Amino acid sequence: MVDIAERPTRLAAPTTAPDAVAAPGSGARGPAGRLLGLGGRVLHRGVAIVALAAIWESAPRLGLVDRVFLPPLSEVLVAWWELLRSGQLAEHVGASLTRSLAGLGLAVLTAIPLGLLIGWYRPLAELLSPLLEVFRNTAALALLPVFVLILGLGETSKIALVLYACSWPILLNTIAGVKGVDPLLIRSARSMGLNHLRLFQKVILPAAVPTIFTGVRLAGAYSILVLVAAEMVGAKAGLGYLINYAQYNFAIADMYSGIITISAIGLVVNQLLVALERRFSTWRVDVTAG
Amino acid sequence: MNTDKILFDRVSKTFGVRGGRRGAAGAVTALDEVTLGVRPGEFLVVVGPSGCGKSTLLDLLGGLTEPTGGRVLVDGRPVTGPGLDRGIVFQQYALLPWRTAAGNVAFGLEAKGVPRGERAALIEHHLDLVGLRGFADRYPHELSGGMKQRVAIARSLAYDPDVLLMDEPFAALDAQTRDSLQDELVRIWARTGKTVVFITHGIDEAVYLGQRVAVLTSRPGRLKQVIDIDLGDRDAAEDVRSTDAFRHHRHQIWTLLRDEVRAAQAAEGATGSRTAHPGAGGGRTSVVAGADARRAAPAAAHTEEARVG
């Protein structure tokens, strides 16, 4: 969902790596070539965005769509700037980010340990897996009314919903990460007489880190997706509230400003998490190159 | 008996087999009453046709499984579990991919509880010993297969086990790398004085490396014969592999194995359901055909893994 164009670059990495080892210094692509390649790629990937902006700007102006419902991009950007200057945007962004980060943080703190336990203790996995199947196939948003009913309209229900939605990708990836550890590594470590705790600490956990991080990255995206929906119900601040409120008051440009801001935040959060994920899984190229 | 470093005392191992595609449930006897002693400081090679329980022998010695009959003794004491007095080198290296070469060597030292301050010197010494000076900071994915296996050997040597157990360690390598690693292994063995138990299905490898070669029969694995290898003065001969003594021993083992491979194939044919693929059978005959075995090695190794594991 997040990075369709991301994959080829990641897959391309292992094919270049062995060459680099075999003949260091004989890299055909110098720094200049690499810069050119990077520039080209940015340009290539930017084209679609620029095209979207151009269509957004021109379609309402040419009368292809009703400009009341879709104002030209420039007008939206002006409205966005106004929101930013008045400090309203910061307030909404702050409210939203606080909630989503709180939910995501709690999910990381609870789902990773739980996932490690479930992945490690087979009896627990067998006990819980039917339950997990039921819950993970229940859309988080379908539970929003339940959360509101039980936890009220305040912050608690919103953070709880984010926590719930974020827990699944982290939990499932953690379980998969623990279960997916190369059995040979475990055998090898066992042959050195490592006890269960040390085996877990030195082999299982580090081996599972990249998979866990993929889960955290997905959860980061969910945290924002779900939050906006939650904020459309009974909130006094937040980007979801802004969008909904602006639409009710027919401040269409403000509504689009909110939407753009959410996209931007989603992109930034994802990029940050991708960078973090890379940082923790540089060794993983070996696995993909297999 | 007390002179043996390692003693397999009438060791048997049977595996329960689940009923599946391959037929009814039952038990497979991997090893049947194997009695074999290894002297201190000896280089013993175990050869046998695919699925004869070579790897099981090593698992028992490593304490990763328990025998269903008999005893495995190291220094006169029964093996009760894994321990750092025995180091295992696996065919697929088993390096931790998130650790550098040095980090992987450190892993065994951490397991042994060597104080942090003493590790660096030991790591450097053992990477040197396997010829990997200057590669300490490389990650496994940056190393070739031969280099990875060198790291694995360094890791096992670093925590200073008395016994080095090697499970077809060179089977996944190309011929040149394998030859050079064999030379290095002999050199390292001579320098460190470890007792080495080396599992292989390559006859040349067995003759080249072993002081003695134990030949196992096909399933159920029994000890067929133990052959003393005498290649004369290794340093004198330019190419040990082409001496008369080498050829003599190779033929000796080849003859012993030929019948076993036939038996194994017959058994395979009887089980039948697997495949009638010519490649599979061809791979197994070539185990006997000396030089060809090297090319077929990885394929044959995989078949064996699939069958034993």
UniProtKB/TrEMBL annotation, chain A:
Subcellular compartments: Cell membrane
InterPro entries given in the database record: MetI-like, MetI-like_sf
Domain ABC transmembrane type-1 intervals: 93-277
Organism superkingdom: Bacteria
Transmembrane segments: 101-122, 134-153, 159-178, 222-243, 255-276
Topology of the protein relative to the lipid bilayer: Multi-pass membrane protein
Keywords: Cell membrane, Membrane, Transmembrane, Transmembrane helix, Transport
Pfam families: BPD_transp_1
Main location: membrane
Keyword Cell membrane among UniProt keywords: yes
Family: Belongs to the binding-protein-dependent transport system permease family.
Name this polypeptide is given: ABC transporter permease
TrEMBL record, chain B:
InterPro entries linked to this entry: AAA+_ATPase, ABC_transporter-like_ATP-bd, ABC_transporter-like_CS, ABC_transporter_ATP-bind, P-loop_NTPase
Domain ABC transporter: 6-243
Keyword Hydrolase: no
Pfam families (UniProt xref): ABC_tran (PF00005)
Family annotation (SMART domains): AAA (SM00382)
Region of interest (Disordered), ranges: 265-286
CDD domains: ABC_NrtD_SsuB_transporters
GO molecular-function terms, A-Z: ATP binding
Keywords: ATP-binding, Nucleotide-binding, Transport
Record-linked PANTHER family: ALIPHATIC SULFONATES IMPORT ATP-BINDING PROTEIN SSUB, TAURINE IMPORT ATP-BINDING PROTEIN-RELATED
The name this protein goes by in its record: ABC transporter ATP-binding protein
